[in-house]
Design a protein that fits this description.
alpha/beta, 20 strands
Length: about 475
C-alpha cells in the first residue's frame, strides 16, 4: 500500500481552501494508506474567511462521510442570499426541493470547523498528525520525494512519501516549483463580528451592493453575524490612526439595512477589525512526478460567493476517486501521467464557481462608467425577476449546477436584459451607444476569466486526452 505526505492537509481526501496560512486541509483516507500530516499550527485558528459552505460543498462533505464536522459547532443553516441595492432588496433561495431536508448551506466559525476536521483525521490509526513547518520540497531528478520540515521543537527533519500533496494556502511558498502562479489581489476584506444582531432575512447570506464595493453579512453562530466590508485595492484605511473606524462609520454604515445599523456601529466602536487580502489565481499546474497541489496554493477566486471550500471539497472527491483503484504509488512518472486527468475532471465545478465569483465581483463593484452602472442595475433587476432568472444563477453559485455553459448563458442574458431596458420604449443614439458599451464591457469581464480557466477544459473536457486516462495496471 502506498503512503501520503501532506503539508497542511488532513485526509479523507478533503481540503478547505480558506484555512490557516499553512492551509488546514483535511483528508481522511479509508483505503489503508499511511498519511503523515504536517501542519504549521495545530491550535484553533481565528479567520475571517472560510466560514460559509455552499450546499454543493455540503453534498461533497456527505459524499466523503464528513457531514458531522459541521455539527456541535453552532453552525447555522443557510438557505440562500438576500441582495440589497439602493434601499431595495430581493431574496434568492437555493433550489433544495430535490434534496434531503438537512441539505443546505452552512456558516460557522472557521476555527471550530477546522478543529472538528482535525479530530476526525487524528482519530484514524493510519494518520500521523504533527505540528511543524515545511521548509522545502525534496526533489531528485525532477521527482518530488517528500519534504524537509522543522518540528515544533526546532529540529529539522526529512519525511519521504511516493505522493506529496502540497496545500500551504494562499500565501504558499512551495507552489512556484509546481505551478505558474499569476495572483491578482483586487481587494481586501475588513472583517468584524456583529453581536446579538437580527439580519433582515434569517438564515441567509446578505450582499449589499454598496459604493465602492459589496458588503457581506452572514451568521456564524446563533448570536454572531460576520460582516465583511470589501475595500478595493491592496491597501485599507489605517486602523491605528482611526481612519478605518471613520471610513466604516461615514462611508459604509449609511449604506446598510437599518436592522443591522446599530450593531454595526457597536462593532466599529469595539474596534476588533481583521483584514484579509482577496486573491484570485487560475489553476496553472506543472504536472510534477511525486507531488500535487491543492487548495488555495493551487487555485483561488474572489471570496464574494463563498465558493472556495466547495471547489476544494469537489477537488478532493475527484482526487479520491482517482486514487481509490491504485494499489501502488511508487511509480512516480506513471502516477503523474495518470493524475493529469485530475486537472480536467475538476474543471466543470471549479471553473464555474471561479468564473462566477470573479465576474460577479466586477459587476457588483460601483463604477463611474454609465454602461457598468447599467450592468450592475440590470444584474440586480434580473435576479429580482424570480423564477428561472434567479434559480439558474443561484444554482450556479451554490455549487448545485456546475455547468459553465449555463453560467455564460445567464451572464449574457443579464447584459441583453440591460440593453433591452435601455432601448425600450424608444431608443436614442446615446442609449444605443451605452448598450453597445454594456455588451462590450460584459465581454471584457467574462472572456478573460474563461481564457485563464482554459476554454477547452472548461467547455469541452471530453476532447482532452487525459480525460480518458485509465489507472495504471500495476
Amino acid at each position: 500500500m502506498g503512503s501520503f505526505l501532506l503539508e497542511g492537509i488532513y485526509i479523507y481526501i478533503l481540503t478547505a481552501s480558506h484555512f490557516n496560512r499553512k492551509s488546514n486541509v483535511y483528508l481522511k483516507m479509508q483505503d489503508g494508506r499511511q498519511v503523515h500530516v504536517i501542519e504549521r499550527d495545530l491550535t484553533e485558528p481565528d479567520r475571517i474567511v472560510g466560514e460559509l459552505l455552499q450546499p454543493g460543498g455540503y453534498l461533497k462533505l456527505i459524499e466523503l462521510g464528513l457531514e458531522d464536522c459541521v455539527e456541535k459547532i453552532d453552525a447555522q443553516k443557510v438557505f440562500g442570499y438576500a441582495l440589497f441595492k439602493d434601499g431595495k432588496h430581493t431574496r434568492l433561495s437555493y433550489s433544495l426541493e430535490k434534496f434531503h431536508s438537512d441539505v443546505a448551506g452552512r456558516s460557522f466559525h472557521n476555527g471550530r470547523f477546522i478543529q472538528r476536521m482535525r479530530d476526525k483525521a487524528g482519530s484514524l490509526p493510519n494518520v500521523q498528525l504533527e505540528q511543524g513547518t515545511v521548509i522545502s520540497l525534496l526533489e531528485d531528478k525532477g521527482t518530488i520525494r517528500g519534504v524537509q520540515y522543522k518540528t515544533k521543537d526546532g529540529q529539522e527533519l526529512k519525511a519521504f512519501a511516493p505522493l506529496t500533496i502540497v496545500c500551504d494556502g494562499c500565501f504558499s511558498n512551495l507552489r512556484r516549483s509546481l505551478c505558474n502562479p499569476k495572483v491578482d489581489v483586487p481587494s481586501c476584506f475588513v472583517g468584524m463580528v456583529l453581536e446579538n444582531c437580527q439580519l433582515p432575512c434569517a438564515n441567509h447570506g446578505h450582499v449589499i451592493l454598496g459604493d465602492p464595493s459589496p458588503i457581506l453579512m452572514y451568521p456564524i453562530s446563533s448570536t454572531e453575524v460576520r460582516c465583511l466590508v470589501d475595500v478595493p485595492g491592496q491597501k485599507v484605511p489605517s486602523i491605528s490612526s482611526g481612519e478605518m473606524a471613520k471610513y466604516l462609520k461615514t462611508v459604509v454604515a449609511p449604506q446598510l439595512p437599518p436592522e443591522v445599523y446599530d450593531a454595526f456601529l457597536a462593532a466599529v466602536d469595539k474596534g476588533n477589525f481583521r483584514t484579509m487580502p482577496n486573491r484570485s489565481m487560475p489553476a496553472a499546474p506543472y504536472p510534477t512526478p511525486g507531488a500535487l497541489l491543492m487548495g488555495d496554493a493551487f487555485n483561488m477566486r474572489h471570496p464574494l460567493t463563498g465558493g472556495g471550500m466547495t471547489v476544494a471539497l469537489s477537488d478532493i472527491v475527484v482526487l479520491r476517486n482517482l486514487l481509490r483503484p491504485l494499489r501502488n504509488l511508487n511509480d512516480a512518472p506513471t502516477l503523474c501521467k495518470y493524475l493529469e486527468s485530475f486537472y480536467t475532471l475538476r474543471k466543470p465545478v471549479a471553473s464555474t464557481i471561479n468564473t462566477l465569483a470573479d465576474a460577479l465581483y466586477k459587476v457588483f463593484c460601483a463604477s463611474p462608467d454609465q454602461a457598468m452602472k447599467e450592468m450592475r442595475q440590470a444584474c440586480f433587476d434580473y435576479l429580482s425577476l424570480g423564477g428561472v432568472f434567479s434559480a439558474g444563477p443561484v444554482s450556479l453559485l451554490s455549487g448545485l449546477n456546475p455547468r459553465p455553459l449555463s453560467l455564460v448563458a445567464h451572464f449574457f442574458a443579464v447584459a441583453i436584459y440591460g440593453v433591452g431596458r435601455l432601448l425600450l420604449p424608444f431608443p436614442s443614439p446615446k442609449r444605443i451607444w451605452i448598450g453597445a458599451r454594456l455588451i462590450s464591457g460584459a465581454s471584457g469581464i467574462i472572456f478573460p476569466i474563461i481564457r485563464a480557466e482554459g476554454v477547452r477544459q472548461m467547455f469541452f473536457p471530453a476532447t482532452v486526452p487525459a480525460y480518458y486516462r485509465a489507472p495504471p495496471v500495476k
